[in-house]
Starch-binding associating with outer membrane
Amino acid sequence: MKKALKYTCVIILLLTGASCKKYLDITPDNLGTLDYAFRNRNEAENYLYSCYAYLQRMADVSSNPGFTTSSELIYSNTLDNYQGFNRTGFNLLRGNQTAANPGLNAWDGQEGSYSLFRSIRICNIMLENIDKPIDLSETEKKRWIAETKFLKAYYHYVLFKMYGPIPLIKTNLSISSTTDEVRIKRATVDESVAYIVSLLDEAAPDLPPVITSQATELGRVTSVIALSVKAEVLTTAASPLFNGNPDYAGFKDKDGVALFPAAFDAQKWRRAADAAKVAITAAEAQGIKLYTFIAPATVGKLSDSLKVTLDVQNAVTERWELNNEVIWATNPEFAHQGFATPRLTPKSAVNAFSNPSTFSAPIATQELFYTANGVPINEDKTWDYTGRNTIKTGDFASRYYIKEGYETIKGHFGREARFYADIAFDGGIWFGNGRYNQDDNSNPLYHVSARGNGLAAPSDNIRLNITGYWPKKLVSYASVYDDGFQQSQFRLPIIRLAGLYLLYAEALNEVNGPTAEVFSYLDLVRKRAGLKGVQESWAAFSRTPAKFNTKDGLRQIIHQERRIELCFEAQSGWDLRRWKELQSVLTAPIQGWSINNADAVNYYRPVTQFIPVFGIKDYLWPIKSYDLIVNPNLVQNPLW
């Protein structure tokens, strides 16, 4: 009965319009009724925007497990919610999650997250009342219904990624619902995926393929977005975590129904590949293509190497309306450039309090990136992997990447363009921050000075980078951190074409193994990054030159390619989960450099920041123990 009362109270609040007032002030005092909220087109449109409310929060990467639990970045444990930033998600890797108090609890909307079931209820209310506005045209109504169905599908999908089999809230419960009716059970994995996909299929035909009124509608859903999300949903369902996972073979509900499929189904990969190809075709038909940087008048002559790094970096940090690669991005803008920017000027060091510079990439993240030959650093037979941490001084040949005459390590030399585009390091060149001429000796490009009295070195025990690596990819080259922070705003991509290409290559390899088509999509992404194709690179430089000839070997290449290309974009955390690879990634300690030392020989000594805690149970979030008490039809996820 407590559960019934809880649901009844929620329904009453929704029916009185109280849920909307946190997003939009659309009803006068004492008139909080659905009839008022849907009395005309304008009021109904306000309610539609409330359905989008959770998406507004996606720009806050601190609440996105794909960002905080990927191990690509860590966050200082001495920095307690600095400037409102919530570190709960980052601390999950330290093993502080329990069933009694789950972190980033999207089920209930607690501990740094937001209740997605609440968002789903708002979407249901929208669908139930869409016929009420008398001045709403049939064309707009069809589009709004499609948008709402998409959002409803997406919210179910995020829950599915976190919790696996979930209750499907197809319609809102009536205020007269019985106790048994409000005790909703979890659907199976296959039922959950089928329902999410059905909503996307219903939505896509009635959505516009592209947003034409960008000034007023950028951020609203398109058919290309819906098709791309469908491809991602089906790829997730086909992946090892959800497709015949032996760890969950005995996981059943209270009625003995198996919640996970017992056997691997190869056809799931075929459906994923087909969906990805449809999405790619639809995207390309709308002029979506891989981004290349077009230098504005403020930028001087660019070397080929710097041009490629800006192709890569700006594929993320270019404004959405100018970026022809982005399919879907967060709205509003990315709010954490100051967390990803080292201090580069004397004034920025004085104003250290204004931006903490605390997003820290572990050593393992920088070692993920290839050599300039396009193969992993531990496979390249021409690259000194064993001596990668020995000291080397910046030379003329590397001057556009590393400060000439500056002591750093050999591991920072001879790397691919994405390494220099994505990661800032001690001695590394920073193109931008107000300096855009690579050959202006009187006003040279900035470099990161992270040792001793260097501007980017620790200023105290709070505003510091604890590894010596910054996620440069998350900062626009046009942003300036000097006397305060002048940000060139951008929206963090949720889906961009390069990711879709790699998704298709992954699914196609799982269906057919290595084929010319798989390599063609992989190589499109690599070419933009200035690399040769997979076959040419491995044959010429890898210690395992035939690796790409088998499905297993090419799978490893595709996974690493995806982790590199989408690094710091809130994707790898989800990928590593669905691949069941996050546990193996987190077996090693999380390390950085000895940041409080001034001399290079002492600075470049690995220091363990913490030992990650991650086991089989951590692939899925626990349902809060209290929820299992009030709804005895729910079952807890395995091992929690």
The chain has three domains: 2-223+622-630, 291-324+333-490, 494-592. The chain is about 40% helix and 5% strand. The radius of gyration is 25 Å.
